[in-house]
Predict the 3D structure of the following.
Amino acid sequence: MGFGHEQLDVYRLAIGYVAWVYQKAPVLKGIHRPARDQWLRASQSIPLNIAEGNGKTTVPDRRRYFEIARGSALECAAIQDVLVVGKALAEEESQVRKIDLDRIAAMLSRLGGRGYCVREDSGPYGFGKPEPEPDSDSDREGAGEWHPTSRCCVQK
């Protein structure tokens, strides 16, 4: 069964990133200790806020937690830059992991941004395509297009 957040791709990607940070952290000692501690906190913040946000029932609450998680992903990228400059992390390895951070940030932007929508199977609710507005004009700027596979209105 499991929790809802465990089924999110962004959560699984974030957990994989945290595992990598835990692997790298033990060798960061001395002058790198403050960056290590901040890196551990920031990396943990990503999946923790994803899980908490996914459990919220209102859109503004969900958005807030997803935005915090996204901020933590960006913070991790900056910490990696600090570690590269301090010769504690190889630039090539950092760049590979920044690809993951970029994906995490993009996924969280999508979840927390304007385009966020709840996706649900039609199941017992009989959910279908909504009725168009009486004065609907498909040429107007900013109009969305209905996508039945995503069950939401996506901006063109």
